[in-house]
Specification:
single chain, alpha+beta, Jelly Rolls, four-stranded antiparallel beta sheet, 8 strands, about 45% helix, about 20% strand, globular
């Protein structure tokens, strides 16, 4: 049950068997049905989630009611509304399962405990947030500098399996384009998946 999350941690730090056990005892398993929310805007974020199986989108709804997808978290990715999780305020970024999703969650109190009592986790979570910040910066630069077609090609290179796994409307909302324009770009630049 914990092999995937321990492999994720092992990419950055080395744990003793005792440290790994201390970590896994703090985790809580959670199942979320496709279409259900892990987190709704206005709630307090209580968890940092690790996706074991499935796909979660992090999104924002603007004043006109349009949804803008900020991230897709699939197997091996972490997700939360960071501002709410760390500051205790209300969430502004809902998280929704796009498939039947299995997760492991970690509370802020348990995260703080890990970082103080199991030193490798201080490094692990620093590296995790450092990498996440870099990805966010690159995404912002791409949204400002690249054409819609270039953003699509970048997305296709970075996340080739998501193109056929996530609904077109969600990918379009991530790229800042209409589903119709995305459909045209997909026809132009991709081959249908093999059966």
């Amino acid at each position: 049950m914990y092999s995937q999350i321990l492999a994720n941690v092992a990419r950055h730090v080395t744990l003793t068997p005792e440290q790994a056990t201390s970590f896994t005892h703090l985790l809580r398993a959670q199942q979320v049905a496709s279409g259900d929310h892990l987190l709704v805007a206005g709630e307090h974020t209580t968890c940092l989630w690790f996706v074991v199986r499935g796909c979660v989108r992090t999104y924002l709804t603007d004043a006109q009611g349009r949804e803008h997808n900020l991230a897709f978290s699939t197997e091996g990715w972490w997700c939360t509304d960071s501002a709410s999780f760390f500051d205790g305020g209300r969430a502004t970024l809902p998280l929704q399962a796009l498939e039947e999703t299995s997760l492991l969650s970690l509370s802020l109190a348990d995260l703080e405990h890990l970082c103080t009592q199991v030193p490798p986790f201080e490094r692990f979570f620093r590296l995790l947030y450092q990498k996440g910040y870099q990805l966010l910066e690159r995404r912002l630069v791409a949204m400002l500098r690249l054409t819609a077609e270039a953003r699509f090609l970048r997305f296709h290179r970075q996340y080739p399996r998501l193109l056929h796994r996530v609904a077109q409307k969600h990918i379009a909302a991530y790229l800042g384009i209409t589903p119709e324009f995305l459909s045209m770009l997909r026809r132009k630049h991709t081959r249908p998946p093999r059966s």
